[in-house]
Design a protein that fits this description.
Layout (H helix, E strand, L loop, with lengths): L2 H18 L5 H23 L3 H5 L4 H11 L2 H15 L4 H17 L4 H12 L1 H10 L12 E6 L2 E6 L5 H6 L1
Antiparallel strand pairs: 1-2
Helix pairs in contact: 1-2, 4-5, 4-6, 5-6, 5-7, 6-8, 7-8
Length: about 170
């Protein structure tokens, strides 16, 4: 079962119980909440698929997009996209768009529906960043030249890299 389905099932579970019960029952409410929380926790864990060593390392947009492309992993792409949206929420929209470009390219290269990938991440994050992601996912002009990144051939597979001058992440990724 996908993480999206787990979240959806948690929402349906609460909706069904709240409609079908005849009166307040604290025990049922507690059990439903525990089940829904369990489904959501499983969904979040499945979405991110981070190994313990990845959690302790500093991750970048380039790391997530590169890993997703090399492993042909929609879940790594989704987790990295959510991470990026959360990291940039409330900041300059132009910076956020630069960070979204590799994910857009990666989704396209993986043969995914780019708009749907960005909508799914926007559903998780919400807010201004989520709205920007929805719009960005529909763009057709996202290219390495237009968004200052490159996709290089490396011994272990393709690798995303920033082409932006004076990018602090660029110097760390090399």
């Amino acid at each position: 079962m996908t993480s999206f389905a787990l979240r959806r099932n948690a929402e349906k579970l609460w909706a069904v119980v709240s409609v079908t019960r005849t009166g307040p029952d604290p025990w049922i409410d507690h059990q439903v909440n525990l089940t829904a929380i369990g489904l959501y926790a499983t969904a979040v864990t499945d979405e991110l698929e981070l190994e313990s060593e990845d959690v302790t390392q500093r991750r970048t947009v380039w790391d997530y997009a590169t890993t997703a492309l090399r492993e042909k992993s929609q879940s790594v792409l989704h987790g990295g996209l959510i991470w990026s949206l959360r990291a940039y929420d409330g900041r300059d929209a132009r910076d956020l768009m630069l960070s979204l470009a590799p994910f857009h390219d990666c989704a396209r290269r993986l043969g995914l529906d780019v708009s749907q990938v960005f909508n799914d991440a926007a559903d998780v994050v919400g807010g201004d960043a989520g709205e920007l992601a929805r719009v960005f996912g529909t763009r057709t002009d996202v290219t390495p030249d237009a968004f200052a990144y490159a996709v290089e051939s490396a011994p272990d597979g393709p690798k995303y890299r920033s082409q932006w001058p004076n990018d602090p992440v660029r110097s760390q990724v090399r």
